[in-house]
Amino acid sequence: MPSRVATKSNQALALPALRGTFGDWTYYSAVVSLPELARRVSFGNELHNNKELSAWIQRSLKGGRADEIADYLRKEPERFFNSLVIALYGGTPEWVPLALQEGREGSPNLGSAAESLGILELSGSEELFAVDGQHRLAGMKRLMESPPEEVAGAKSTAISDLVSVLFIAHRVDRRERTRRLFTTLNKTAIPVSKMERIALDENDVMSIAARRMVEDHAWFQSPRIALHHTNNLGSEDSVALTTIGNLYDVLRELFLEASGAKKKDLEYNRPPDAEIERYYKLATKYFERLSVVEPALAEYFNASDLKEVCQRYRSPAGGSVYFRPMGLALMTEVAMRLKKEKEGNWWDWLALLPRRLDQAPFAGTIWSYRNTMDPKHRVLCRDLLLYMCGAKTPPAAELRARWIEVRGEHVNLPRRVKELE
């Protein structure tokens, strides 16, 4: 017998459903109200004999992801889930085909459709558990711990939602078969890539702003921004300033500092349109300020011959830190730290710092002795830049020891820049 932690309900339930087959599985497609689903269905830990493994599954499903999904269900009017796969064990479920009358003369023959439409009757004594969609189920359960109130005349909340469900039959003597389906569904569900999120996501404010910048703003239109999700420019990107993946990361730094929000809120909770507009203007204004800090950027943004500008400022000898994706992200992080920790404008502070990769503190940290970008010592480079501005860093002795270890020679910390007046 499977573990009896599965949720039971004594109330019978009749669900209009479609009956289908896929491979050697028979399934029933139906919709179930969100509160009913949260109450009746448990997690897939019933598939495992090992109690410790089952407990680990329970703990993993009660983590922060459940809170994020509950928050999404509570706040997002355009919320949507794909179907959950629910295994059904025990009880006395019944499938009652509907008797369909033939249509008018000349209408299509119903054929097998007559056998596919019916009512799935659950007695209430069945055990139901999620084979696919455990985190979505966890989010629903978390939401129902403090369900939203329905207000007359207002938009309906998630407790009125009908969730698409695929029911499959589970037999305890064929537990391995159900568990194999569980692992197949979860292993072959490919996560949405960063590039897909940037291209399609209508909730993620960084994606929304990045798309608009590359579509509408002359400074960022093709080929100025390479459409890669990584921070690496390829040989074919000789005229691009950076990649759209790197632009996304830069915007995230800006928006996190400006909003004080958590990263997940910016990714999953679409703000009002007026707020999205403010984020977009913040992004474009940032690059306007940056083009004053680094005149090479102003030259690039206004150039007709992009290749010639890039060859001068992204050369084998180094060039400008702002013409390297890693450097652009690094200087943005430094700028936002200075904005938070120092008096005066961040762009005035940034203008006092070195810009060439062959200068300290870039040389020997993010700019290697092989004349390549090296992310290994990025944090050290950031801390040295912050130290130069008198911002919060590890103790000077510790910072110097780290730099000596990286350089392989005794060096002093870089000279601090003068304080802003």
UniProtKB/TrEMBL annotation:
Superkingdom assignment: Bacteria
Pfam families in the record: DndB
What is this protein's record name? DGQHR domain
Biological source species? Pandoraea pulmonicola
